[in-house]
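A student in our group prepared the protein record below, which I am reviewing. Here is the record exactly as it was handed to me.
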Amino acid sequence: MEIRIGLAGYGSWGKRHYESWKGVHRARVVGIYDPKYTGKGSYRSLSQLCSDVDALDIVVPADKLAGVARAGIEAGRDILVEKPFAVNAAEAKALEEQLKRNDHPLVMVGFIERFNPVFRKLKFITEFLERPSSIFCQRSGTPTLIAQHTGVLKDLAIHDVDLLRWLLGEPTDVGVHSRREFHFGELELTFGQVSALLISDCLGPKIRRWVITYEDKTVYAQFHEDRWRLYTDGAEIKVSWRMPLQEELSYFAECVRNRQKPVPSIEDAVRALEIIEEA
């Protein structure tokens, strides 16, 4: 069965989604809805696109995500929605309630780092080998419209909030320091005996790194030369690299094909937003 995909949004990240779908087995983008796009396969309305597809891939600006997702759910289409899914937890909860009233559509949220081979390796280490004593996370980048719409924590740090929940469960304590005028945020989370410090800013240049401290060693991950890499004691830990976006889209297509509830779910998006707002 070939999955017919509709792409809502054709900005820089939407174009990456479009190219990545070409490598997904038995899935095909049949149309694109974006008011600024008038090329091949363009649709004049979102409703027309929904009527011709099995699933909707939503890659629009952050303040439009929830509205497009709502339209997709009302049309009964399975949807993949980019993070942060909504600009606040209340908006996300409203969509969660809408979904409960219509249990046909499958909804997945694009927390892409869960499909990153490096973080999957860290999950294995954390679950089966050893829990760390502390984790430091940093995401820095250039100013973005998303940060202006949601704040830098919901733009960048939300990835790390989701990853920490995935690795360690629910936090027992949260705290925050944020300066919107500098697009800077510092979030402290506690997971039992494990403390985590998250720093995000849109001051540039691009930095992505995790530093995981154990009693007898330090493991760190960083984004370098277009991919994440994992190290311990100065030596690189070999990880078989696969493009996370390709893995994410392939997984979503399989969930649609097999009618399997995907994760990260709408509940994961609600909880990540709640944690940031609670802090």
Summary: Residues 113-242 form a domain with the Dihydrodipicolinate Reductase; domain 2 fold (CATH 3.30.360.10). The CA atoms of residues 2 and 92 lie 30 Å apart. Residues 152-168 form the longest helix (17 residues).
